[in-house]
Input
Amino acid sequence: MRSSIAVRLLIAPAAAALGVAALSCAPPAAGPVASEPTTAEPASAPVASGEGAVPAAPANSAPVAPVAERRDYVVTSPNGDRQDPYYWLRDDKRQDPDVIGYLEAENRYGSSVLSRSGDVQERLYEEIVGRIKQDDSSVPYFDGGYWYYQRFEEGQQYGIVARKKGTLEAEEEVLVDQNQLAKAHDFFKLANWKVSPDGTKLALAIDTVGRRQYDVVFKDLASGQIVPDRLSNVDGSLAWANDNKTLFYVEKDPTTLLGSKVRRHSLGDTGEDPLVYEEADKSFYMGVGRTKSGRYISIGLRSTTASETRLIPANNPGAAPKVFFPRERDHLYSIDHVGQRFVIRSNWKAKNYRVLEATERTMGKRGRWREVVGHSDAAFVASVATYDGFLAIGERSGGLQRVKVLPRNGRRYGKAYYLEAEEPAYTMTPLDLPDASARSVRYSYTSLTTPSSVYELSLDDQEKTLLKQDPVLGEFDVANYATEFVKAEADDGTLVPASVVYRKDTPRDGTAPLLVIGYGSYGFSYPISFSSPRLSLLDRGFVIAIAHVRGGQEMGRKWYDAGRLLTKKNTFTDFIDVTEHLVARGYGARDKVFASGGSAGGLLMGAVVNMRPDLYRGITAAVPFVDVVTTMLDESIPLTTNEFDEWGNPKKAEFYEYMLSYSPYDNVAAQDYPAMLVTTGLWDSQVQYFEPAKWVAKLRATKTDANPLVFVTNMDAGHGGKSGRLRRYRETARDFSFMLQVLDETDARANWPKGR
Output
């Protein structure tokens, strides 16, 4: 999916205080640029067929932007055909020399533009990583007799997963040093790791390409040796049975990358792994897991509008899966099992969800489920952490997420209460730990000014303990920053919330640069959370805002439904209305407004920049989903079929016309656009690289301004960009410096690389 789960949401930019060289944003001197470059400016160089490169420029001339060839291609559909002259940029094998050559030419041009701020990029990078405590570790949690945690060592890119038996004073046992595994790879990601119930075996799901097609390797923890068993092309979810030798996993379709088959692997067995379950409906995502009680292996199936869970006794891994409750359209539910009860989060007769309980006897009899937390029009049940003695509920109300605790004594629940917060905008989330007998609520707390913190609240004496707050090295002082929670009125009268952060000494008189961030799809609620890299912008006078637009779930399920399918345009107009509101109230200067979004948030950027290019000085769009209609027409493209209930099926005329009316690629117009930085990954499985490649090619040939358009393809990564804890901040520094360049207008246009 192109969702928040699957995407790194980039945020970018800053102010001219660093004295960065300029990317001019003045209007072009010549008239409109047609589909081919005019002679009014130095002509951009086409990428020649078979060459895949830009001809060398004379030594004394500025680099030129590559112009992609136009090749005839017709995209057919039941509702009409469309010409797509840049369709040839799609190469599913990533081997076509013309395609690779074009991407590399764009990278060279982008490097020539971005190199103008090379010193600033390096300074920003050092500044950002200088705030990070490199020899850090996570808060340990208890599971099956061991304390588990992850720690980092100075200068290392990846974490070390370790444990201690019984007590935190015991000797450390290293389970996996990711730095050793990553040595031979340009890209590395440990997607998941699972220890067998008896603590003797370890399964690791690893990606060394960025395509999210994981390999699973096994380690014998007694000997420390990797065993010969290996699984390939699987999903990241894994679950051990109680025999400590059977692992359940999801096999991916090699073309669509959908998880369609659940198999079980028995360690040492070299034959084909038995098929446990196969899903025929391609609109469903699938994963496997263990219930907290350890009694069941669960197979979770979920589409946008329906879900289903199938259970296998963990003591009998060869048993056939049993349906907990059969799928129904418009019924979404999730379950866990703790003690002798199932805890169910369900939207049955409850738009904003409610919490119910069932036993093994009543699990298929919905009418006999016992309600624990009822439905509320004002509060959305976002998550439930289940324990023997209480429930901790993540609840959204008024656009904020807080934690509600429901104590339990036997089968009876006491009076619920909320955990307190002292800031106007924050995110508080209950942590669902493996130890069901815990007597403390562990939760995370963060805001735009407060670093991520982990607390525990004792149910017995209500004593609150701060277990850890992410350290911020250097001169950071939370007292220097302020956060607000404001609401902007949309055209239809809807109040759209936004979270705002700034330094207290930044003037809010309409002179500051403003960065607005957004997403607004899949019901993902953009977190109101601290980001130490943002300090590099805030300390240079930026005001930063998160627009909680429709399509997310900040204001409940209705908020999501009002921003998908045939109401999707609300997402885009909400973002524009929030921007206008902030400018009108002095949070930012009208000529210094930037916007940023990634993945489906990149769709937001593409739509907004077509609709209101005059409103923004610059845009960064990371791995943007911008070719909506063509992608959703092609069911061979990974994840398409899962998302018909999110965007609509363009084979149906109503959805085709509506999607076509906002699809960023299809609506590129002969108009002035702001400065733009577009990024992608060659191996992206969520948003294929050719979507932004085509979009940029069309923008170059169509837009009428001379503002910079930079397109960067990471040739060794996928949807999340570069791997590595510190390395990824190179990309952050690049994005920040791009916007700094755009803000600084001291250099003449003639000193900059030519072409759009």
In short: Residues 134-177 form one domain.
